[in-house]
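Handout, page 2. Input:
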Amino acid sequence: MRILQGTVALSATDLANHLSCRHLTTLDLRLARGEIAEPSWDNPHLRVLQQRGLAHEKAYIEWLRSKGVTVVDLSNEQEAATWAAMKSGTEVIVQASLASGPWRGRADVLLRVEQPGKLSRIGNWFYEAVDCKLARETKAETILQLCLYSQLLAELQGLEPEFFHVMRPYTRFEPESYRLASFAAYYRVVKRTLQEAVNAGAGGTYPEPVRDRGIRTDSRTGTNSA
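Output:
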């Protein structure tokens, strides 16, 4: 959560944090406004998991390259570069920056999909999102993250992706594929409650004990830190 030109910018991590603890949204909003300081403690366990997550993503991308597909890495680029790569029909887009309104996201991988009878704003192809995760089971936070990326893609390409995908380790790079329509209603509910909480301002919540209290989800690894 950040303040950009006076507007609260939201991400998939904010969705995940709100799902785990509504009071965490209050704290994140106060932090974004500079009302409180960010905790100074650095979790070394989380740093190791982040490094493993990066290594997993890199291995998947190298595997894609070995198949002879065109790969463009936009790690240091913004939304305009993502749009240009999509219009040019790049087969694999890495670290694609997506944005619409207050929502921001950076997808690990976008895969070009060609399907007869489906025309998007960019041609006779469209893109679906892939996220690389270390967790052995796909979590609700990951589903929300990929629903957001899929929505941002839909607004950009003028066609809603049918699927999104999770790439877990030790699967020989066979993705877990999920149909967006199966989770769209759930995503809209969580998204709406987060936006309502942000619009209400930093207040109205109390740090009551809940199972995931104090847990933050890292959007790259899908892991949690206390």
